[in-house]
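for ur thesis appendix - Pyridoxamine 5'-phosphate oxidase. copy paste whatever u need, i formatted it the way the template wanted (i think)
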Amino acid sequence: MQNLDSIQNEMDAFINSFKSLFIASFSSHPVASYAPFIKENDSFYICISSVAEHFEAIRSNSDQISIMFLEDEGITSTIFARKRASFRVKAIFEDEFRDELFDKFKAKFKDEPVLEMIKNMLDFHIIKLEVMSGKFIKGFGMAYSTDGLKVVSHITKSHIKNI
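the 3d part is after this line
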């Protein structure tokens, strides 16, 4: 069995391989969406428009949000146990740091000329997703709990066979 430091490194590399994350939020109904992100310390930052459906869901229920990073179907060894990292997060609007954070978005997404246009559109907001807890799943029997983005334990619940 791998030690937790090794699992931590694997999870970090997995997350760092992505440019966007999936978002599950809730307003009067569940909302599934995605957003490009930057990672700073143990938080993720997204830039979304107030016109988008998920904006209101995030704003009105800032502590009822989940995010997920999911292995591509084309490279997984089994579709039934794709590698993934999912986290409960709290949203904090960070518009006072808008210019500084847009510069970080530009640094990560150098080849995206649309960023300059978005920066000048007042309906786009920067939202910090502060990670509370989560899970990193590598496959069957390889699930780990996190406190924030720190891997803290192997989940040892067994699957129950139905006879």
